[in-house]
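pinning this so it doesn't scroll away 📌
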Amino acid sequence: MDAPSPATFDEMLAPDGTVREAYRQYHHWLSQQDSAGMRRKNFEAESFFRRTGITFNVYGQDDAEERLIPFDMVPRIITAAEWRKLSRGIEQRVRALNAFMHDLYHRQDIIRSGRLPERLFRNNPAWLPQMVGLRPPGDIYTHITGIDLVRTGSDEFLVLEDNARTPSGVSYMLENRETMMAMFPELFTKVKVQPVSNYPRRLAASLSACAPDCAAANPTVAVLTPGIYNSAYFEHAFLADQMGAELVEGSDLRVIGGRVQMRTTQGYKPIDVLYRRVDDEFLDPLTFNPDSVLGVPGIMDVYRAGRITIANAPGTGVADDKAIYSFMPEIVEFYTGEKPLLNNVQTWRCADPDSLKYVLENLAELVVKEVHGSGGYGMLIGPAASRKELTAFRAKVLARPDKYIAQPTLALSTCPIFTRNGLAPRHVDLRPFVLLSPGGVEITPGGLTRVALKKGSLVVNSSQGGGTKDSWVLDE
């Protein structure tokens, strides 16, 4: 079960120092730039982000103030051929995830077939019995999905995790591109890059295509936010503005005449599609958490009646579970009849006795994650852990092995970042954003590249000191 770690793949430079195809035009341009001028540009980018208000909150810390998202101005570049191959695998996976959601809340054929253990969702807090038998408009559950990818070789991208509940970060993808185009307009005349700026328009069209039958010819779309103190409020407001949609809070909405309606200066107006950025638990106090003040009392009754679309559908968080993730190869094959085009990272389920034994014996070499964890929290990176941390985590895993999975410590690919001393390689991942509607699948070319700014770090999450960079997919 143990495999040797491959050498780190540098996405810009080959081992002999030559520049890889994806970066040739950019590298040629960069070699002609003045280093002092580039440092000024780097300062301008930081100032731009501060003025725009591109920040996030870190919860659970004494200094949980808003923080600037670190931005690196060296783009991450992918060739058109690489992207075509990736896109096929991403589309296959997203279609399988949506089919899995439908099956899990209806016949549960994958359980009956023995491919997936029933225990994985029966005791899963993300699985909602209230969704059983409910068919959302258009049979779409995962309207917006973020598939986290890591690269480990010249031709190997692996799926690190799936984000089907409320994938975030698309506003940073868009602002990163806008910042780059503002700072280096001449660069985009030399290197032909596929655009991402049409994402909000495509998102609005995709959501509108999922509107219920009772919707008017031009469906009303709204973004439901928990409010200004939420860590991703910037993104909620940004997307609502860019889509031309209303930004609403739970207090702006009520159920009137069997429809969810929002308060306007002309009275209450029905909403057809609600892009919610509120967790399931707080969505409807009459159905879920009775103490919630963030959601809309009665919205689930309207949803059951087929008179509003909620994106993403309640209960899709099951797909974010890392124990479910470990079964994704079986899930893809079950619903598509095809072998997965994108492979998972090798994963050991600690709930399995043989896997648990292996994990405990090799804890210092593995990455161990909570099945419901996110944001880089609740995980152990064995090679970077102290003996005390290993001992403490071993006790946690032994106490509740079903709560953990383990993976090898991957040699994530590196991309260059700009530092005071010039370019330096840092580890990266990639989150493409995928839209699903009855009309098909749309994948934004590139997505959000997250980068571990600390030398040697493998943790790219912004909450853990990571940053972002613009992702380029080259035109044909």
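📌 and the second one:
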Amino acid sequence: MNRPNAWRSATSRLILIYGALFAAWGLVLVGVIQWESTRYLNTVIDQMLEQRMHYLATTETSRLGATVDAAITIDPHGVMSVGLFDAAGKPLAGNIARMPAELAPDGKVRLLAQGLPRPDRDGSQVRARALASRLADGRILVIAKDNSTVDGLGAIVWRALLWAISLTVIPGLLGGFLLRRGPEKRIRALQQATDPIRQGDLTKRLPVSGRGDEVDVLAAIVNTMLGEIERLMNEVKGVCDNIAHDLRTPLTRLRARLYRAQQQLAEQPEAALVEASIVDIDQVLGRFRALLRVSELEDGRRNACFDEVDLGGVLQQVHEFYAPVAEDRGQPFVLDIEPTVPVRGDAHLLFEALANLVGNAIKFTPAGGEVRLRARMDSRGPRISILDQGPGIPAHERDAVTRRFYRGDNSRAMPGSGLGLSIVSAIVRLHGFALDIGEQKEGPGSRITLYGYTVKPGEVPGTCLSRTVTPEAPAERIPPVAATG
């Protein structure tokens, strides 16, 4: 099972959602603060301009020019600008060189977007709020206040927002990384716990931390479901095994009686009917034996007696056993093996599994077609492949062919019970190995590969694989001469 993407975890999403909400709320909050602050400062500036205009407008007419010049001497930086103009707009006094075009002499405060020059800033334009009023003698008095205080406050507010976001996001990311590690560790533990369950071991359970959080509640629910599934599966398996076991004795007795009847009816027409009945009973008994064999292998306790097994020797035995069968069918049976390391397992069970696979290959390969038994060494362990030139297993059946009694479209007309690959699958699961069912790259036919090491679900061990079947995945079986079914 693949490791989940860290940025797609619930914790990461909560952190991102929180960060987005914090940024959006911060923008709204700063916008409101800046709007309120700007409105308040503009009101204060407007009041200052109106008070200064009232003071100068009430000054004696003959002394107004001198008063204006005196006002600018106490403000060398030009924060508060004053200008006196005649009716035609010609400057008479003050530090405003020309009449602002966008300012009407109506006594209302306006924002000069183009600004006024500041003496202490090399004459660069700065935004200002200004007020113009026409006096009784026709002259125009202009008073302007630098708006840099308001703009500076807005810049301070936005810088504060950036600092707040950075001081929140950076610790939030670090904290989110630390908070995410705990759930990720628990998810990995759950993934590791589900691997044997997915391989058919229903005795395993998901770990519960004891914290009582949502993950523990979910794990407890799944464990309850697993317990019920295990109970039901054991009941069904027990019923099937009991039926197969209990029916073997009366069927064996019936076969013995039919055999005695056949001996007594020798050379009579009824003897052929009795012989056909014996053949049918043998097929039923064979299926019962295969069912009990699968149940025995699925018990899993036989692996306690595993030992080191030389796969090369097992393959030699399988080849020697089936070489005469292939020769009778005119099929070249090629043994292509390289030295491999020993594996831990049961030599008799591995022989049985490989014998089933080779028997299937020989049975489905037409006369004259080649069957190849190949062994290679991967970086992690041995890999055994059985390649034939038969019709192959369709892709849509590869996930079903190891189910008990499953018969594929290509095998319905062939003799057999459909239990051989169930035995192979049980042996593979018992050893913890992997089975891959695919098609040949070189031509028609199937390729079944047994990996002598553990392959994780979804993992592709080799570059030549079209797909990877986990040890519990199904595959089809064609019963060999010496195999069950």
